[in-house]
Amino acid sequence: MKKQIVSTLLALCMLLCLMPTAAFAEESTETPPVCSCETACTTDNMNKECPVCGAEKAIPQNCGQYIPVEDRTGENGSTERADDPNGSIELSAADQVQAMIDGLPNAEEITEDNAEEVKAQLEAIDEAKETLSDEEIDELDMTLFVFYSACLICFFIAYSEKKPRWYYLAYAFAGLSVLTKGPIGLLQPGLIILLFLFWRRDLKALLHIKLISGMLLFLAITLLWYGPMYALHGSDFVSQFIGVHNILRATVSEHPQYNVWYYYSAIFLAGFVPWVFTLPLAWHEYGMSRKVLTVFREKRIHLLVFSMKAQFLIVWAATIFVTYQLMATKYMTYTFPYMIPIAIGFASYLKKHDRLVLNMAGIVLAIYVAVTCTAIVPQCRQASAYEAAQFVSGLADSETTVVTYGGRYPVSLTYYSGHPAYRLAEGKDIARMLPGGISWNAKNVMPFMAIEDVANHQKVLAVVRDRDEARFLQDVPGNWQWRTQKGTWSVYQKSSDL
Question: Which of 84, 91, 170, 343 is the most exposed place for a label (fewest CB within 10 A)?
Answer without folding.
Answer: 84
